[in-house]
Amino acid sequence: MKSATGAIARFDSPDHLMSAIRTLREAGFSEIEAYTPFPIHGIDEALGRQRSKLPWVVLVGGLFGAISGYLVQWYLSVVEYPLIVGGKPYDSREAWIPITFEMTILFAAFSAIGGMFLFNRLPRLHHPLFDVPTFSRATNDGFFLTVRIFEVPQDRQAISELLASCGGHDVTTLDMED
Amino acid sequence: MSEIHVPARPGGRVALVQGGQTFGSLTNLVSGITEASTPKWWWPAFLTSLTVLSVGVGMAAYLISTGIGVWGLNSPVGWAFDITNFVFWIGIGHAGTLISAILFLFRQKWRTSINRFAEAMTLFAVACAGIYPLIHLGRVWLMWWLFPAPNANAIYPNFRSPLMWDVAAVSTYAIVSLLFWYVGLIPDLATLRDRAAPGLRQRIYGFFALGWRGAARHWQHYEMAYLLLAGIATPLVISVHTIVSMDFATSILPGWHATIFPPYFVAGAVFSGFAMVLTLMVPSRVIFGLENIVTTRHLENICKILLATGLMVGYAYSTEFFIAWYGGNPYERFTFMNRAFGPYGWAYWVMVTCNVLSPQIFWFKKARTTPWIMFVISIFVNIGMWFERFVIIVTSLHRDFLPSSWGMFVPTWVDIFEFIGTFGLFFTLFLIFVRFVPIVALSEVKAVLSDQNHEMQHVERAAS
Question: How confident is the model at residue B2 (pLDDT cuts 50, 70, 90)?
Fold first, then answer.
């Protein structure tokens, strides 16, 4: 984990935030992160992010649930303890389907949530950002931006002015990690 | 002046968030409910619910210690109040998933004001439902025989049985509903954390918020996870009541052995669940001052869904009768004549009156926009849907093929108080929920407000 100094600013609306992102990207900053009370349409494209890979995780989880759900029923009913119930064959394939389906759903759900936490590096109860006094508004009505300063050789004063000129309030510097 | 492409009110509709709300005022409104001092009515309501719950616990203890003979069950009516109440509660749960998952996939933005509420209702209803199959086992401690673990005789569960499918479906449903609800809560719990003064409250909400800080990267994966969960919860909710209906439909009993059962049950479940949403929402929005978020338009939409699903249920009732006649099976024909005109005929007509006739008032806009009318109709539908399950289960069982094996079912006091006790559980959980958890999906409503602001700006710009 390397430590670097960054800057943070608060914006009044999603529109101000988006235009600030565009300005900063044009100025050459690439490591920008936004913090918002609700998801903003188009922000991933503005930040140059790629689509989430989560669907692949869920696909694998769902397939695991389907295959294991089916195999457990088949193994226990056909191999481990074959027993005729109600005159039905040992391998009553149609009857395995409902539980197979439910296990598909169950493991897909587990992987969707587990994958989301993993990608987001959560749970993580504390983060340096929580030390920024105004940051509590990020879950209320504030739209925040952080940038890494060292990327472009500009002094702190210049970056603060740049953020303020885009409509940023409460501009401060902070120690960034990751 | 250019053409207005995005009307401020799509299709001439009323805005979803009213009263000139801002992001900050929404936060204050929703968080304030949990932050204000406990309302005067809360403790009496909570203690009453807790008392009713303890009656239910007492009934369950009596049943487990004595045997299921304390219920009015007999041969031929081996399933009665227990399964009726199970299906009743699990059906109510379905509206929550429908609102949170299916309406999400259809991009119905009005869902955001009521989804948290309805999902909580789902969880509590599933908890109530889950009690019945358990205590109906009689020997509850052998419940683990339902899982694929080797028991004392090394025999495994019979996976060909719909009752086993039911175990898988209902437990999956409970788990996925809980996860879905919790994931939706995380950003709002973070809001409560960030508003709390340092101390225990901040620590507790902070723990459950998992360190959420609303980063764009977080939202990206979060939204994808939410979309995927909605995508898998949609077939799940349909499968759950389909499988519940298969508990009946795969038997050979006239009145149960019908291919119409899966869609019929799913429609009925949604119908009953939306009725319960109305029952809870109409008073709650007034008590918590949420009229600007849960507007008349929201309630009207729920009424329209009630009308539509009520018609589906009515159609299913008539189709069943038609097939009983057209199918030419004398046993089935007898079962349906017995259902409507036999000893339990009164229950059948209560069901038809409540479920088919009473929602017809929603053809009138006046009824769809008057809260007390909705409330009354929703109570009728709740009653009617309970009777639907009672009618399907008891009237089919009590007179089957052989007149020599006919019988009657009369509930005992244990049956009745156990059922009342489940309402105690439901409302106890519900009162805890409204006191400690944000009851409106705050971050989602803010996103709706943001879109609404954009539309307004667009119109203003086009007009100027």
Answer: very low
Separation of alpha carbons B213 and B29, rounded Å? 21
CA distance B377 to B367: 10
By Cβ distance, the residue of B168, B176, B210 closest to A99 is B168
Residues of chain A with Cβ-Cβ distance to B212 below 8 Å are 122, 139
CA triple A78-A82-A88, angle to 5 deg: 85
pLDDT at residue B125, as a whole number = 94
Report CA-CA distances (Å) from B115 to B74, B184, B227, B392, B432.
41, 9, 14, 30, 17
pLDDT in tens, A111-166: 999 999 999 888 888 888 888 888 888 888 889 888 887 655 556 777 778 888 88
Please tell me the pTM assigned to this model.
0.90
Is residue B228 pLDDT above 90, yes or no? Answer: yes
| Partners of residue A108 in chain B, C-beta under 8 Å | 228, 232
Chain A environment of B159 (Cβ under 8 Å):
73, 76-77, 92, 95-96, 99
Task: Tell me if B246 and A98 make a contact (CB, 8 A cut-off).
Answer: yes
Q: Which residue of B has its CA nearest to A87?
A: B160
Domain boundaries, chain A: 4-51+127-176, 54-120
CATH code of the domain occupying B14-455: 1.20.1630.10
CA distances from B239 to B119, B194, B315, B329, B346 (A): 18, 39, 21, 29, 31
Cβ(B272)–Cβ(B88) under 8 Å?
yes
pLDDT at residue B175, as a whole number = 93
Chain A residue at shortest CA distance from B210 = A123
Provide ipTM, 2 decimals: 0.91
Q: How many CB atoms lie within 10 A of CB A2?
A: 7
Under an 8 A CB cutoff, do A85 and B222 touch?
no
Using DSSP's 3-state secondary structure scheme, residue A148 falls into strand
Q: What confidence score (pLDDT) does residue B318 get?
A: 94
Q: Is A35 helix (H, G, I), strand (E, B) or coil?
A: strand
The rounded Cα A46 to chain-centroid distance in angstroms is 16
| CATH architecture label of A4-51+127-176 | 2-Layer Sandwich (3.30)
Residues in chain A with CB shorter than 8 Å from the CB of B210 are 117, 122-125
**Most A CBs within 10 Å, among B26, B210, B217, B449, to test the A interface:** B217
B98 within 8 A of B273, measured Cβ to Cβ:
yes
